[in-house]
Amino acid sequence: MYTLAVCAEMVFTDVSIQERARRIHDAGFQVEIWDWSRHDLAALERTGAVFSSMTGYLRGSLTDEEGAAELLRTAEKSVKAAERLRCPRLNLHGTGLDDKGLPVTPMTETTGPMWVAAQRTLTRLAELGERAGVVFTLENLNTAVDHPGVPFATAADTLALVASVGRPGLRMNLDLYHAQIGEGNLIELLRKAHALGLIGEIQVADVPGRCEPGTGEINYSAVARALAGLGYDGTVAMEAWASHDSDLALERFRSAFTL
């Protein structure tokens, strides 16, 4: 069966990130964080938590030479941080995001040369991951609500890029919250990505609101049954705000994915 993880950036928000990690760990989940450079890694190490994923770059983009160089430079720093926390996955987006989740350089269209540049940059990242023993995951995002102007945002585009690279150091972070807003047809999307062997992780939140499963329109119990039927044995991570109480949000997440 799959492993359950929780993003510490979005629950227990009234306490420090290390206390959040400790509470998530004590509840029986693995822990995910975003920008590791904002946190005290030594304090996170002392929590005893098992870290599942973290942001794999600090700045840069996939589509231009200068941005790619910065992305690769900060990815190398992220690999070293991941080694400290024994974190196996480093997450990527189509371009650098600011503290509101908006692209540093918004794009209204994605051209052919941008696709070629992105594939080249992702290949180099995959090679870096393979040398370091970690996996970079490219996450799909939605542009309608949370991340307007991000290139390669859809699940279809993300999957196509990961498939075109075709290396074990790069996989897809299939975010079902973003996919529901952008594309829908979630179970068929899961089946396709799983059949290709390209899922590095699955992230979940409900729609609308981006809160825990059970607060919106997505039938996560059906998603859980589909994953079990596929034999998916990777990570399912809740990257969601707690609708009310964080402990309750974690239990709702656990319940939705317990068969």
Short descriptors:
alpha/beta
Write the layout of secondary structure elements.
Elements: E1 3-7, H1 17-26, E2 30-32, H2 41-45, E3 51-55, H3 65-85, E4 89-92, H4 112-132, E5 135-139, H5 155-165, E6 170-175, H6 176-182, H7 186-195, E7 199-204, H8 220-230, E8 235-238, H9 246-256
Parallel strand pairs: 1-2, 1-8, 2-3, 3-4, 4-5, 5-6, 6-7, 7-8
Write a structural description:
- With 259 residues, the protein is an alpha/beta fold.
- It has a single domain (3-256), classed as Divalent-metal-dependent TIM barrel enzymes (TIM Barrel, Alpha-Beta Barrel), CATH 3.20.20.150.
- Helices cover 41% and strands 15% of the residues.
- The chain contains nine helices and eight strands.
- It has helices at residues 17-26, 41-45, 65-85, 112-132, 155-165, 176-182, 186-195, 220-230, 246-256, and strands at residues 3-7, 30-32, 51-55, 89-92, 135-139, 170-175, 199-204, 235-238.
- An eight-stranded parallel beta barrel has the order 1-2-3-4-5-6-7-8, surrounded by seven helices.
- Strand 2 (30-32), helix 2 and strand 3 form a beta-alpha-beta unit.
- Helix 3 runs parallel beside helix 4 and helix 4 (112-132) packs across helix 5.
- The longest helix is centred in the first third of the chain and has 21 residues, at 65-85.
- It is globular, with a radius of gyration of 17 Å.
- The termini are close together.
> Based on DSSP secondary structure assignment, what is the total number of beta strands?
8
Structural class call reads alpha/beta
Count helical runs. 9
Query: Which CATH first-tier class would you pick?
Result: Alpha Beta
As for the number of domains, it is 1
Radius of gyration: 17 Å
